Every structure is written in C-alpha cells, then in structure tokens.
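User: Predict PEP-CTERM sorting domain-containing protein's structure from this.
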Amino acid sequence: MLRHLCAALLAGACAAAQAGDTWTFTYTGFHDTGDDVFLPDHQLHGSFTGADGNGDGILERLEITSLILNGKDFVACEPDSNLYYRCGAEAFSYSLAGGLSFKAGEHGSDPEGWVGGGHYYISGDGEYTYSYRPSHDEQRAWLWTDRTGLVVASPNPEPETWAMLAAGLAMTAWAARRRAPHRAPGQD
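Assistant:
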C-alpha cells in the first residue's frame, strides 16, 4: 500500500513539474503622461510560466500558461471574455537568450456602450488605462523611455519540483531502511 502511495505521489509531482518554468521580470522607470514627468521608481511587475515545446529557444504565446502583469493573469482571464468584456494576451515572445515582448490587456463596456474602460500593456511602448461614462473621459499612460530598465529573473524551482525531490528522497530513505539488516541491540 505504501509503495503505491509513494508511486502515485511521485507521478503526480512529475506531471505537475511538466507545466513549465516561471520567470519574473520588472520594468522600472516610465514617463507619466498625466503629470508629464519621468518617474524613475515607477514599476511594472510581471511573470510568465511556460515551456519551450518546440525547442527553438523562444517561448511564444501558445507555449505559455500564464502572463501576469501587475497582479492580473492575462492568459487565465481569456475564457472570461464575452461580448461586453475582452481580456487576454494578444502577443508574447521571450527569447531564452534575452528579449521580452508582449501585448496584453482588457476592456469592457455596458451593453449600450455608455460606460466602459480598459487597461493595456505593450512592452517597449507603454501601459495605458482609460475609462469613459457620460460627461467624463479619463486616460493615463506610462510610457517606456530609453531610461526604462528591465530585469528578468531566471526560473525558480516550482513547488511541484520541490515536492518531486522530497518524494524521491522519501522513497529512497524508505527503500534503504527496508533493506538494512535488522540487528539485535549490542550486536556490532
């Protein structure tokens, strides 16, 4: 019974680990169009999870399972899209040698089109937000400049990877203990 439980745990951890690696990134320094000033500390935080399925050294849109920008997952929200709300990642590319490019966003309105808004991210260009309702429109943008910096962190081991390692070590210890000869106290 214990052997079957250990095998199931190891198989589950292996399957979960195949979901892909997770990279994190941060862009720092943007030009705020609302105040017409460069904000050196303004940041865009993000992460993406994926695996280079075709082995070409580039993660493309169909090879990622998440794209999180400032806390919103633009891959996970795609199934929520409907006639009045659209959300998703239109484009994505990451070269494993460096170079990140994406276009993602969301927008929506009421059925009559009186009230609505959206939020878009286009790497290398800007982060845009807008809203409208009768008698009031609002827009804001934070634009990339030549002073905008990017830091991409290499993938960190996922919890599933640690679980697979722990399951393997536990099985090894259990097998070694079973095979060890039993000695009576005082025998050496």
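The helical segments are 2-17, 159-179.
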